[in-house]
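RESIDUES AND SHAPES:
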Amino acid sequence: MNQISFNLLTATFGAIITYTFGGWNELISLFLMAILVDYVTGIAASIKEQQGLNSQVGFWGLARKGLMLLVIMLAHRMDILLDTDLMMTGAIYFYLANEFISITENYGRLGLPLPVFLKQMIQVLRSKGEGL
């Protein structure tokens, strides 16, 4: 790939990210890292539990994460429409909390020690989420 093609590809990617999320910030980086850690720990927990890997489960897991990014994109466009910075940030924090809960559950499935208060907090959040 020559330099012009690379520059064009990079510029296009940057324009898409800017349009979609309004630029790049640490909150988006943390959220994408949490998505990656959740997916990797979920795979590791399934292998440890000898459940094997199921392509359909993996597909739907990735589809869920893609839909989260779609909601965040829509929230950013709503922020532009309403001239606020509230919608996208709120959506990211909501999904980030879910990712952290899932990562913690995966760590438990892997047999890593978890503090009792953290296990209780997950139970409370899970029970409140079932009512939604």
Residues 55-82 form the longest helix (28 residues). The CA atoms of residues 19 and 73 lie 9 Å apart. The mean pLDDT is 86. Helices lie at 3-21, 26-48, 55-82, 87-109, 116-130.
